[in-house]
Amino acid sequence: MIPYERQQKILGLLKDTELIKFEEIERIFSEVSASTLRRDLKELQKNNKIEYLSGGAVKLVSATGEIPIATRNNLYSAEKDKIAKIASTYVEDGDIIYLDSGSTCSLLFKKIIDKKITIYTTNTDIFSINSGIAAEIITLGGQYNPINSSVSGPLTEMNLQNIYFNKCFLGVNGIDEKYGVTTPTLAEANKKRIVREHSDNTFLLCDSTKFHNLSNVKAFDLKDVTVISDKSDEILQKIITLISKN
Q1: What CATH code is carried by the domain that includes residue 89?
Q2: What is the C-alpha separation between 241 and 46, in angstroms, rounded?
Q3: Which of 168, 185, 217, 229 is spaced 20 to 30 Å from 152 by Cα?
Q4: How far apart are CA 237 and CA 131, in angstroms?
Q5: Alpha-carbon distance 168 to 97, whole Å?
């Protein structure tokens, strides 16, 4: 089967389901290597036919735009919960932290709100938590995006310019040893860049499906950060601290 035929078949699958995991595509095209299938997906994305999500799913491009966070929460939920549990052990009473938007960061919220800490955040999922809160929580203003439950933009960046953290926990869409940390939008990339510059310690919460993947906009280099993930990676471990076990 030539690339064009594979790509058309992938589009046909997506018309029926709209969202499909990469593992399912691998099972359907069992005779084709994973690297070849990824090239097909990148070609389809280049032609604006699909959105290749760093969480390991593929979405048919339509007028609805991004996949809602409620849907993203169901992707790799066990891996994300493991990452959040590991990350919670690095939060101690007295910490002043920044907690990012994203499904894994939302899970971390629930595991640390009973600690005596200060949390600055642009993650609007915090408004769904109304009990067991011991932490002081400060939400930052900005342009609200209901798709990813986040605020960002010039107002957010202005607020962040005068705030410093001893730890930050950032969600990412892709990390790569050559191209660094990437995210879908310029606004999110700028926000993460400022937070990193204003933090003593930077933790990236990143499930292993995002290793060696790229999103649209570079936030910063993969340097002086700690990655918390569900799996180790031989290449990344040579250049950063990567934690995958408690």
Answers
A1: 3.40.50.1360
A2: 33
A3: 229
A4: 38
A5: 5
